[in-house]
Amino acid sequence: MTQTPVSPTRPSFTILGTGALGGFYGSRLLVGGADVRFIARSDLAVIRRDGLRIDSPLGDRVHCPVAVYADRDPIPRSDVVVIALKTTENHRLAELLRPLVHQGTILLNLQNGLTMEEELAAAFPMARILGGVCFLCSNKVGPGHIVHLDYGAVGLAPFDERDRGLLEPLIAAFAAGGIKAEALPSLQLARWRKLAWNIPFNGLSVLLGADTDELIGDPVARRLAERLIGEVAEAAAACGCPFAEGFVTTLLDQTEKMTPYAPSMHLDYLAKRALEIEYMYRRPLREAARKGRELPAIATIADQLTYLDRRNRATD
After folding, report:
1. 194 an active-site residue?
2. Are residues 163 and 214 in the same domain?
């Protein structure tokens, strides 16, 4: 059976999670003329009063007033709900999405890790599930205040190939806001490729207390990163998503050229927030184990991060 495309030419958006990622992309969609609503929690009062501030090489913006809601508020229906929450919030994701999802609603998941789309499809069979892989250096530096440092491109792919026709208007909406967006041939391959950066550089930034320039510039840290990337590549191949020849070298070269950057996990650790260990480390380990592949370096770093996270957030 062929899915019936339900792709509006100018889709409206609800951004679930107005942080470094959701706030930035929501801002660019507004710049491009899209109808955008934001859902915020700790920043809600500040954004309602002062607006949403984005400092960016693409141009500084203050969106004021801006349509921002608490998750308990009645929220007008949108064509696309963009999931920009950290995966540490996924225990409550279905509850947050339930009032936002209707027959044919597009769920665009911008989270990092594996198996999120499978969970969304199981919880919301009436929705159309897309995945997005973001190449973005952006930090939230204060309530309603985001600093975009570098990059910003988005790769999009459907969870169900019958929904590939939904990508074009979303790509156009991002492009109108100055964001390069492209359709990717495989969502699973894109997720594994992103993990090849996230697993080493997020984890090592916490364990070694270093930003990307220090990690890539130090020979010992770089060897650790290369070992972790190698294990991701092995797991991806075992799961039917082999990387192209030269991918690892290209990834390291891109990181070397990157604006010095504190990965999100390092910032979360410093702020004593929960770390995204489950979907970024445990799920890839689980999927690799199903294919008979052990990943000892990744398993070790996952255990180290789990210990540090628990100790870091322990109450005195």
Report:
1. yes
2. no
